[in-house]
């Protein structure tokens, strides 16, 4: 039977990389997009179809899931994440999906853990108990966060504001997560596996700033902000209280060194080494150099 792989959250950081990776496979791909306009960029791939998914409108799920054989399940960081994940797994079960690969997060099973991890763990457990063959990916923090969240201050001021002290993190390139996902979705050996995925080295934000300076030819410095200042900055951007608390909790664990674990998963599964931060910076140099 021909495989049809659905990717939810397809226009996000990992989804975008995964759709591109799957465009070279002999499968049909459904890019599950919140907004059809944002999915326009996928129309260049002949094996990719766009399908609307709005988690707030469950009726969109049935159309998106009908005829699908495998799902790459990406959910955003929202307060009802667990509820959404349950809905997605239930729909997959109803239409007879034969594998769900869930994008989770590093440390999801830590005790007592942090809010982000606990929500992912609940989603993992629901999936594991569903009877649908599953694979769980638990990546560390994405290198792309330095574009998504720090890109503006890097471009405008040459500064990275974070409350991470000297904490080292084994940042992963989202492109490598997609490369692992591509293998896991197209080869049968990964059912029931939980894969911890990291970059090749743990580095501090100070080291990140040094790499970005080298690659961009600019001076980019790290400003280690006190937690209270980080709270105020997020508050001034109208971030909800629950999200601010969850972000600060995450940052405390990273500052304490809990994000530094390095795994060999990318190399083991894809046959090529995980990208270094320098390679990431070189590939995305335009994001760090003002026009
Ligand atoms: N960032 C990290 O460092 C990190 C590390 C480990 C794990 N994770 C996990 O990775 C996941 C996020 O992945 P990502 O960073 O690739 O995603 P992302 O860039 O945050 O994108 C989220 C995607 O979900 C879509 N979306 C948002 N609301 C939706 C709705 N109501 N209905 C349907 N789609 C909706 C978005 O579309 P629109 O933009 O059009 O709304 C977008 O395509 C989270 O579960 C997070 O916990 C992240």
TrEMBL record:
Name this protein carries in UniProt: SDR family oxidoreductase
Entry-linked InterPro entries: Ergot_Alk_Oxidoreductase, NAD(P)-bd_dom_sf, NmrA-like
Pfam families: NmrA
Domain NmrA-like: 2-254
Annotated organism of origin: Adhaeribacter swui
